[in-house]
Amino acid sequence: MRYLAVLNKGLYICNDITEENELSELFKEFKTEIFEEYEEDEAKEWAETSKIMGFKKEEKEHEFIEVLKEYRKQGYAYVDILLINGKSISILIDDILFFSTKYRCKWNYSEEKLTVSQDSDYLTPDTLDYDFQTYLDEVKSHTTEEEAIKRFFKAFKYGAWGQIWYELKKTNIKINNSFITFDKAYAEIEEDKSHHTYSLGFKLENISILLSNIIMITPKKIKNEITNSKFKKGIKKIDTKFFW
C-alpha cells in the first residue's frame, strides 16, 4: 500500500499499482507525489495536510457503515462518494424530513386557536420549535404533548397552501464479501437555494462498489431538516405524506 499525496488536498490510499495509476490520472492537473505506507508523516508534511482519503483493502466493510453513523450523529444527512474512476454518487444516510415553506403556524391569542399565515422568510427549525412551544404553553393544562403535536401539524398542513414538508428516504446498504450494495443512489443531490429545497439526480438502483474504490466521502447537511424525533413521529402520522 502506498499514498498518492496531493498538495493541499490530502493523502489518497493506493492499494495496488492499478489504483495508483487511476488516482494519478484523476489528479493529473495537481501537484502530486508517491509515498510508501511507512512514510505517512513525510507525506502529510509534503502535502501540507493530514487528511487521508480512501480505505485500505484489509479494512472491513462495516467500518464504512461506522463512518456513516458518525456523520449522522454530527447532523449530516447524506454523503457524496467519490470513486477511483472519477465518478461520484450520493446516498442518504437516514430518512430525512425537512420544511420548505414561508408559512408559519402560530397560536392566535385573540381567537384562541392555531392560525396559518405567510411570513417573509423561510421557516427554520428554531422558529418551528418556538411556534410549537408557544402553542403548547397555552394548551398543556388540558392536553398531552403528543396530542398537541398532532393538532399543531394537522392545522399547519391543512392551513397552508401547497406542500410544506418533504421526506427523503434513506439508502439501504448491504455488505457482501468485499462489495457494498446500495438499493438506491443518485448521480447527485442538489440544493435549490432559491426555494430551500433539494432535487435528486438520476437514480441508480442496486449499485455495488468495492470498498477500496472509494477515495473520498464528503458529508452534507439538509437545510431546515427536522431532527426533533417527536415532531417527525407526529408528522408521519398525518394521512397526507410526501415521499421522494
Structural notes for this entry:
With 244 residues, the protein is of the alpha+beta class. Among the domains are: 1-53, no CATH class; 101-162, no CATH class. It has six helices and 16 strands. Helix 4 packs across helix 5 and helix 5 (145-159) crosses helix 6.
Features:
single chain, 244 residues, alpha+beta, 4-stranded mixed sheet, 3-stranded antiparallel sheet, 28% helix, 34% strand
Number of strands: 16
- Overall mean pLDDT: 88
Coarse morphology: elongated
Q: Main sheet?
A: 4 strands, mixed
Structural class: alpha+beta
Poorly predicted ranges (pLDDT <50, ≥5 residues)?
none
Percent of residues in helices: 25-40%
Distance between termini?
41 Å
How many DSSP helices? 6
Radius of gyration: 23 Å
Question: H/E order of the elements?
Answer: EEHEHEHEEEEEHHEEEEEEEH
Strand content: 25-35%
Give, in spatial order, the strands making up the sheet with the most strands: 3-1-2-4
